[in-house]
């Protein structure tokens, strides 16, 4: 851990550049060992202060909107686009930027196929294999609006040269293996006719304990069975897994009938919504989760449920203490809001032990979002 006394203003997202570089190196090594190309998905992490480094590692970027495509295009030579639906007013510009465009439905493809003559075109499929327990995050749930079902895709429409599947979320190599088994089972009749298969995100290859040898073996085996198919994966989290923190301070301590809450200058609702949606309790430096007693962490918004967990601390916490919430790079700053007018956290980087703020926010940012 670096010297947190350098952080004079909280809350702040803090990228640990050394850890970030280690993740990039692991992904670089995998691309040399396995027939797969890693794309960087902006939906999980869009801190463009380090896009140059990401572009040196990833083979391209995946955008889910016009804004993401515009943000990615100056850095990444190859931009892929996928959205559940494309906005008519945006598609022309997306089509100029993206070299690969994936359509969520046959009707979306029919609508836009003539508007992107220079892009490779894919369809998103539903691999019919669920790995995610939280329904909010499960793209293969019954009635899902994401992807074409096998019974609706007996043949490839003219002009479609690839398929795209995304059903994983912070998953392991075993789930990837079963995903490919399901794709071959349900869509195997189409595989001889495609040139590329995108296996989406959720491949958490940089997590400790991830079975990298199985990952390599699975993709190598698939490639040997289907040598004409170029494989892509597009994780967002894997690039920045466990590479940073949200620094926040205790500004008050309140008690209510035996429950003690540390009131923070950050908000789970506004700054860390995944904690409430998944839900999960972040790891806190110098503390551990406990089932009973302990301290809740309370956010600064007026939402009654803006709190998480029950923590025991190595030292009794007090007003003014800084807390470091771990693994807060992916799906945090990209999902922040200014609910209640709460300012967004600073964005900073620690390089060689030195902390530098690369972005801060104020009233102008709040005012510009509203009429």
TrEMBL record:
Its cofactor is pyridoxal 5'-phosphate. It holds the Pfam family Orn_DAP_Arg_deC. It is an enzyme of class 4 (lyase). This is Carboxynorspermidine/carboxyspermidine decarboxylase. Belongs to the Orn/Lys/Arg decarboxylase class-II family. NspC subfamily. It catalyses: carboxynorspermidine + H(+) = norspermidine + CO2; carboxyspermidine + H(+) = spermidine + CO2. Its EC number is 4.1.1.96. The keyword Transmembrane does not apply. Keywords: Decarboxylase, Lyase, Pyridoxal phosphate, Spermidine biosynthesis.
């Amino acid at each position: 851990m670096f010297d947190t006394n350098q952080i004079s203003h909280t809350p702040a997202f803090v990228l640990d550049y050394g850890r970030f570089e280690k993740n990039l190196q692991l992904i670089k090594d995998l691309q040399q060992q396995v027939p797969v190309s890693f794309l960087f998905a902006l939906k999980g992490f869009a801190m463009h202060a380090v896009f140059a480094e990401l572009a040196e590692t990833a083979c391209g970027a995946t955008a889910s909107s016009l804004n993401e495509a515009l943000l990615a295009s100056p850095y990444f030579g190859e931009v892929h686009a996928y959205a559940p639906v494309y906005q008519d007013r945006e598609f022309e510009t997306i089509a100029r930027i993206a070299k690969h465009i994936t359509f969520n439905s046959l009707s979306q493809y029919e609508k836009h196929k003539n508007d992107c003559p220079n892009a490779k075109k894919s369809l998103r499929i539903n691999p019919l294999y669920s790995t995610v327990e939280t329904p909010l995050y499960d793209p293969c749930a019954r009635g899902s609006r994401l992807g074409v079902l096998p019974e609706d895709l007996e043949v490839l429409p003219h002009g479609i040269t690839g398929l795209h599947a995304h059903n994983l979320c912070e998953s392991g190599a075993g789930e990837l293996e079963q995903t490919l088994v399901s794709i071959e089972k349900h869509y195997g009749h189409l595989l001889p006719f495609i040139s590329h298969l995108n296996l989406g995100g959720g491949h958490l290859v940089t997590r400790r304990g991830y079975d990298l040898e199985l990952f390599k073996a699975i993709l190598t085996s698939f490639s040997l069975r289907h040598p004409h198919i170029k494989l892509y994966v597009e994780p967002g989290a894997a690039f920045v897994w466990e590479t940073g923190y949200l620094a926040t301070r205790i500004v008050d301590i309140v008690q209510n009938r035996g429950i003690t809450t540390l009131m923070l200058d950050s908000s789970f609702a506004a700054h860390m919504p995944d904690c409430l949606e998944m839900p999960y309790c972040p790891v806190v430096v110098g503390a551990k989760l406990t089932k009973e007693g302990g301290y809740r962490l309370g956010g600064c918004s007026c939402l009654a449920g803006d709190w998480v967990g029950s923590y025991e601390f190595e030292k009794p916490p007090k007003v003014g203490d800084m807390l470091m919430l771990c693994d807060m790079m992916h799906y945090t700053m990209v999902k922040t809001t200014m609910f209640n007018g709460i300012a967004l956290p600073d964005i900073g980087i620690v390089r060689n032990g030195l902390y530098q703020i690369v972005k801060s926010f104020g009233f102008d940012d709040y005012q510009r979002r509203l009429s």
